Amino acid sequence: MRYRIPLCFLLVLFLCAASAHAKRTPRYRYEPMRPLTPDQAELVQRAMAREKVLIKEIQQRTPLVETYIQDTRPDAKLYEIPVDDQYMLSRVDFSKGFFDKSYSPRTVEEHRRWFNGSYSAISALTRLLGLEKFTYSPTGFMQMMFIDPTGFDQQHYGFSFVRREFLGSIRTWVFDVHPKPSVKGYGRFYGRIWIEDQGGNVVRFNGTYTGSGSEDSSKYYFHFDSWRLNVQPDIWLPVAIYVEETQRVEGNRNSLGLKAQTHFWGYSLKLPTRDSENVTVTVDNAVDKSDDSQDVSPLEASRLWIEQAEDNVLDRLEEAGLVAPFTQGGYEQKILDQIAVNLIVPNNLAFTEQVRCRVLLMDTIEATTVGNTILLSKGLIDSLPNEVSIASVVAMELAHIALGHHIDTRYAFNDRLLFPDEATFQRIDMYHSAPDNVTAAKKAMEYLENSMYKDQLPQAGLYYEQLQQRGQVLKALNTPELGDSLLKPDGTPWMSELEHMGPAINWDDMNQLAAFPLGSWLKTDPWDDSVHMIDAKRYAPMNARDKMPFEVTPIFYRLQRYAANTPPVPVPGSTGAPAAVNEGAPPATTAEDAAPAGGQPAASRAAPAQTPPATAQNPH
């Protein structure tokens, strides 16, 4: 059954923005507001009008919403460490309210939901945050997309000008905001806003929500930092929210904190397009000889049938916003495909069709194959510290392809994929069986030993060692939404032989980078879902606390105004060291990058203190 909630009611449901079980503290006492100049007052008025435009714009969208939460506790050496986690992926239709429809797991024993129904997903988030005891609507965490969807005006709020500030190339005016003392009710914003000076759009707001002036409500709400990007001309939309609640008590290991990121994408989901490679050329007085053979052998027909299933599934997943669209000359082609070539050539793997790599847009750490296409999740790529680690994952997926562990060919029939998005994740199976993973891991080691990466395998082993350690508490991060986990059900890596080659993890060795925090390498364009490498400075860690393997970090953006083919650049939070390393260096060594005699090989994504990868085998 489908339940619809009117938009006007939806906007009232903001009262239950995520709550934190904070210690009771005195209610907020607001500083006196300083009078605004005419220019400042005019900009604030424009911002109020633009918030109404934003709400109408979002009504036309059905974005994907991904929330990942890590509970933390203090640690003497690392400052704090994750002790538990939760993950949720939803599709929200703001024009029709929230659908009360859940998405069934692939198998009850081994796999969680792919997508949660919008209303059910938000209800689940309420439960995992421990909010079920409160009577507020479970849709309230969406409030962090808006300052105040029903009352952002001068009747309800006071404003004080702080300063002018550049966020990237965007000049903003910064204001402190709080509810007026006479305003009653819960869910009023209290914090700081950044308004860009050309269109009057709020591009960032940072703070929390408060309750009635007569009652302390600090225990009900999280503190958060909400960002928007200029995704199209004159359109700024929410793209990311960072939430943090920590209250350190020295010597108290039970002093729990929380860090979370929410990301939005898929604002303009489109049907994918595919340029056929089998084009019949019609030329006057000429015969098409694009294919020398007239007939198709049984083996070729079988492979073409698998390829047809592959194309159908990839198109369906791209349409649903789960797979980034292929971009000619993009990250997948320049980096991931080249790493695949670095393994294919020395192992003499004679694939009839080119092996391609694509990116799953989730933060969960997973990988799988669809026909001759390798799928690696964004979260997996972000956490891999160097090229050889990427190669180890690609090698296992190549082994699946070479061993014939392909997707079910029933998807070659298009009608099997003609169903709503919520049903997509019940009907497509893309994970491999345990026996298949065992044989693929063994074969992958052979590929690595025969490749240019053979002398660097201990570096990759270090990643699997760190993954196994953190996997004991980060179970949600390592539970795949679509494909295969890198860990067995018992928590050990499928590539255990590779793990045993790695050195012991030494937190005090600043040259040893076992795994990176989430968001380290890729950014997703929230409008068209394409992925790009972030253009950020790379800093060497100064201490063990800078390493943060698989951890959630704050979010910062160097904002830009919209320009075609120029997505905004997110910058991962980092305390960083003074000296930058490997600025913008791609993580693959290509044949074109091979060093001439006396030259130096191209830089890889590994830190300079690590062994750089060897040059690629020349496929020609």
Polypeptide structure, described:
This protein is an alpha+beta fold. It has two domains: 7-265, no CATH class; 298-553 and 584-593, no CATH class. The chain has eleven helices and 16 strands. The strands form four sheets. The protein has a nine-stranded antiparallel β-sheet, with helices on one face. A hairpin with a 2-residue loop joins strand 7 (223-232) and strand 8. The radius of gyration is 26 Å and the shape is globular. It starts with 6 loop residues before the first helix and ends in a 48-residue tail after the last strand. The relative contact order is 0.12. The model is unreliable at 1-28, 98-119, 124-140, 271-290, 571-586 and 591-620 (pLDDT under 50).
Summarize the structure.
23% of the residues lie in helices and 20% in strands. It has 620 residues and is an alpha+beta fold.
Helix content: 10-25%
Backbone shape: globular
Distance, first to last CA: 58 Å
What letter string, H or E per element, gives the SSE order? HHEEHEEEEEEEHHEEEHHHHHHEEEE
What is the mean predicted local confidence, pLDDT? 75
Strand content: 15-25%
User: Largest sheet, described in full?
Assistant: 9 strands, antiparallel
Number of helices: 11
Strand order of the biggest β-sheet: 2-1-9-8-7-6-5-4-3
Specify Rg, calculated over alpha carbons.
26 Å
